[in-house]
Amino acid sequence: MERTEYQESVIKRYYKNQDSIMLQKLSELVTELYLADEKKKPGLWKRVEAALRNLKVPPTKINLIMERQDPVFLAKFLEGKL
Predict the structure, then answer these.
(1) Closest CA to 77 of 19, 33, 17, 27
(2) How confident is the model at residue 81 (pLDDT cuts 50, 70, 90)?
(3) Of the candidates 65, 79, 81, 74, the residue with the CA atom closest to the CA atom of residue 30
(4) What is d(CA 50, CA 25) in angstroms, rounded to the nearest whole number?
(5) In this structure, are residues 74 and 30 in contact, taking their beta carbons and an 8 Å threshold?
(6) Which pLDDT belongs to residue 18?
(7) How far apart are CA 65 and CA 33, in angstroms?
(8) CA distances (Å), 76 to each of 11, 12, 13, 40, 81, in order?
(9) Average pLDDT, stretch 5-14?
(10) Which pLDDT belongs to residue 1?
(11) Closest to 30 measured CA to CA, from 54, 53, 51
């Protein structure tokens, strides 16, 4: 399947800005974690872990964040990343 020039440019922009997009998603997940009930939190933390892996955060830092599962700690980590 061939893509149009416009589709190619959209795809290129997405990959060019992927880190920014992942950081934005992580910021949104911090908010969701604050507001979520206990049933939804495990799924949100899985999404956090996946986003951190996509950003190529070192596994030791990912493990630390996942062990704590503290939205405040995650927010502080993200402030340092931005």
Answers:
(1) 27
(2) low
(3) 74
(4) 11
(5) yes
(6) 85
(7) 13
(8) 31, 30, 28, 22, 9
(9) 92
(10) 80
(11) 51
